[in-house]
């Protein structure tokens, strides 16, 4: 291992120079404005959490967590997501608050990458958690809010892809008895490797009609009517309830006016050990990575000795910035250069210009004549040379 150079940073981490930091801040403000309109209150959590509480409750694999030890010998983790820390807050600080709780956040999360070249280990997320509300109405609310967030951020031609983990699980189990084969198939769906999924599906001895049914179900763009036909004869209570849930969900989405932005993709599963119902991802045209993802995770709160239904989503700000190179509204920048005997006048004038909406930076001039090189940074330059006297502050 070579010693890092003085200007280097750890692999997978990035800097935000002023223009990019300004875009990120503007995006967070747009998103927070939308969250607040829907009644979500912001909450914050520590960057470090105990592994035995938040770490073990997280949907993120232990191998992807950054760990360290405190002085008492406890294992700590840099938060790998925000959902588990917020669950800790809900079951402690907010345990006496009436339900449902609508909470939102803007935070960085940390995940080690197996192959870190070109991939971030620190992510910036903005998200919501709707805790204590079960059913299609709550799921529809967070999906509709995700649509409004992407609209507010002026993302062009986006689509929300929607799956249902419970429906898929029940549908597959009715046709596949081999648990190992079922696990392998779900792993391929989780990896979005449909080629290998179809290959393995053809090797487990299903009837041709069953194979076609499964391939039709997991095909992106399958309609609600097709799903109804495929599941109409199911004896599985889980499949029946999930099918009814999707019908109700789309009724609510239609009432929200955003059903047209949502397409069914029951091959979309997220983390099968974490999500318990709907799971969704938001994509922009021409982008191969999700701008946001979320779903229902009713099993999480048992880690904190509560049994609460919950749903939510997180926006990946890094992906959103790449998909939509939004720029802050241009603001004229002024460099105000002054000699030492005119500092009161200079600072008073700078204050007045800022109140008028300008971005103003002040600079004390050296005794020699002429403006420094930094003056080229500004749209306009104002100079207060020596000898005119002081103004009021």
Automatic annotation (TrEMBL):
Residues 24-309 form the Aminoacyl-transfer RNA synthetases class-II family profile domain. Its main location: cytoplasm. It is found in: Cytoplasm. It holds the Pfam family tRNA-synt_His. It comes from the Bacteria. Pathway: Amino-acid biosynthesis; L-histidine biosynthesis; L-histidine from 5-phospho-alpha-D-ribose 1-diphosphate: step 1/9. Signal peptide: none annotated. One of its GO terms (biological process) is L-histidine biosynthetic process. One of its GO terms (cellular component) is cytoplasm. L-histidine binds at residues 81-83, 111, 125, 129, 274-275. Keywords: Amino-acid biosynthesis, Cytoplasm, Glycosyltransferase, Histidine biosynthesis, Transferase. Heteromultimer composed of HisG and HisZ subunits. Belongs to the class-II aminoacyl-tRNA synthetase family. HisZ subfamily. NCBIfam families: hisZ_biosyn_reg. This is ATP phosphoribosyltransferase regulatory subunit. The lineage of its organism: Bacteria, Bacillati, Bacillota, Bacilli, Bacillales.
